[in-house]
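Researcher: Next sequence.
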Amino acid sequence: MRSTRFSCLALAAITFLLFCASCRAQSQAQAQSQSTTTPQTTPTSALAGVKYDYRWELYGGVAYSHFNAGPNLLQGANLGGFDAQVARFLKPRWAVAGNVRGYYGTSGVVPNPYGIRGPFVSEHMFMAGPEFRWLSNEHGSIMLHALVGGAYGDFQHAIGNVPPGALGLFSNQFAFGSAFGGSIDLNRSPRLVFRISPDATFTDFGGVGLKDQFAISVGLLYRMGKGLK
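Model: Next structure:
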């Protein structure tokens, strides 16, 4: 659990530094462009029209999660998948978001007499919650979110009639799921955004208590429905 929390904090710090570096680089490039432009021509920045007054944001990206498919497994599962979200802004800084995620891959198991190693597992999460735009300028913004809902884990797809407990796996089930984190949004135009979104995710498969995990996704966000006041 400590390593997961450290990873989340480290990645949040790195993405924040990347955000600041990107803003600085774009500002320097814009200043250099302006200094080399003749007085008769005025440069037009692609980000000059960025305003945070859109009602909707649609996001889709590729995702990664470090996931524990059993209560006492020493080896976690490194899963890949997707992350999709729609957010409805009520005010320029506040929104309500709906999020769907899917993670797929193989998991370690305990030593067993069935000769099974690395079976396929998957997790789907369905969540909703508030989003808050913390920092923003024409280059990008930092979003924070708290998403709560459910998670469905499929741990028996590849093991046939073998009891999942004999492999140290959970049984297939729907359980509590949540994600707390945010995103670094780097504007490529007033509507199109490149997003990096790290999260600490929590699930309660097997009723053994909340298990914290690490997840991250990278993808594109599109804004629409301009006119929010």
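Model: The beta strands are 54-67, 77-89, 94-106, 120-136, 140-154, 173-187, 192-203, 211-226. The CA atoms of residues 66 and 78 lie 5 Å apart.
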